[in-house]
Amino acid sequence: MKKVLIIGHFWPHREGSVRIMGLAKYLPEFGWTPIVLTGPLQQKPLSKFRFIETDYPEFFASFKKLLGPSSKDARDRLKSHFKKNLFLRFFYDLLKEIFAYPDGDKNWKPFAIKAINQLLEKEKIDAIISVWPVTTHLIAKELKEKYQIPWIADFPDPWSQNHNYPYSFIRKYFDEKLELKTLCNADALTAAAPLYANREEKFHKRPVFLITQGFDPENLNHPMPSLTQKFTITYPGTIYVNKQNPGKFFAVLEKLIFKKIIDPKDIEVRFYGQFQYWLEKEIKKFNLSGVVNQYGLVSRHESLQKQKESHLLLLLNWEDVKGKGVIPSKLFEYLASKRPIFATGGFPGDNVEKILIETKAGVYAPTFKQIENSLLSFYQEYKNTGKIDYKCDLKRINNYSYRKMAKKFADILNQVCEQQD
């Protein structure tokens, strides 16, 4: 089989793109042996995965002394401290703006290049996929120029054209220049959402292949576990402030409870993930304490189990017009759970709506009235039957699996290699 080097952090063993795990697992089914080049891992992947782990001084490592030598996650603790102080927050943003350019993993490049050079002395690599972070594309560019290896640059999220771009217009100017210079020699560009593909096509003035995120078919909800006794709605993971709005859902739930249409003893809304104080304020604001609960961080395995035992899975669509068309990666994980998806907020005609209609995996409710009608319908079904029936089209759901994603990448890999030959 041909060999492809995938450059990017190996999620979930280190924070990175979920695509890398899917590619590592399923590319061999399509004639490609993947080798993952990653930064230092929190735990080792299964032995069936071939990976190269390199150490390097991360940008935030020099700040560990501020938090004590025992800090296991200095970056997150530093951010937490900075958010409580406006001056420190300004200092933190300035550090990222100027010194973490093009990203906080910039120090990885020489270590990665050294490891790859050693690899290429021993064996042939037929293609490269650079995924995430931004530094991976700089590494791939240098390899492309030196060895003329076919290269796919993938965008799970855009670089300078990100709808959620966090820096100033000055920084964006330099990011755009570097992105164009870096990717001009890539053999193919891929993106994870129509919004991203369209933006990258306009920016780079070349075709961009659309390959959405996916789910691991091994995580499909089978056999189905017992559902919770209460009418349970679950949301795992991060909520992006000012980008996603649980307030719409909370307002409707409060109204239905106040009118005694929904019995608060029947229902629980569960949030799993980093405890968020602003979310707790929202819960109290809508008088939903005891009905809506935050349970904090749980393992990935437990998170999947909590989803599978739920009556509904809550999806908070992107509310920022700049991000119209974003497809949350959470949607694909929900598909594997085979529980009805309750997508609130967003915009009519959104990509999320199209996927839900295609797969029959849930309902799309962007407005208050639609949220109310859908929630009431779900609740009445629960009261009548004790459950919410799931009417998905499993064949269409499987079109969004890691296996399908890997097949699309394999097709592009074959294409760029044929062009080089």
Helical/strand content category: alpha/beta
CATH topology of the largest domain: Rossmann fold
Distance between the termini: 17 Å
Please identify, by name, the CATH architecture of the largest domain.
3-Layer(aba) Sandwich
- Number of helical segments? 15
> Under the CATH scheme, which class of the largest domain?
Alpha Beta
Description:
The chain has 421 residues and is of the alpha/beta class. It folds into two domains: 2-57 and 103-212 and 401-420, Glycogen Phosphorylase B (Rossmann fold, 3-Layer(aba) Sandwich), CATH 3.40.50; 217-399, Rossmann fold. It is 41% helix and 15% strand. It contains 15 helices and 13 strands. It has helices at residues 18-26, 74-83, 86-98, 108-122, 135-147, 169-183, 194-204, 247-258, 277-285, 300-308, 330-337, 351-359, 368-385, 394-397, 402-420; strands at residues 2-8, 32-38, 51-53, 127-132, 151-155, 188-191, 209-210, 231-236, 267-272, 292-294, 312-316, 341-344, 362-365. The strands form two sheets. A seven-stranded parallel β-sheet has the order 3-2-1-4-5-6-7, with helices on both faces. Strands 10-9-8-11-12-13 form a six-stranded parallel β-sheet, sandwiched between helices. It is globular. The two termini are 17 Å apart. Mean pLDDT is 90; it is low at 64-74.
Tags for this model:
Rossmann fold, 421 residues, 15 helices, 15% strand, 6-stranded parallel β-sheet, 2 domains, 7-stranded parallel β-sheet, 41% helix, alpha/beta
Give a quick rundown of the structure.
The protein contains 15 helices and 13 strands. It has 421 residues and is α/β, with parallel strands linked by helices. It is globular, with a radius of gyration of 23 Å.
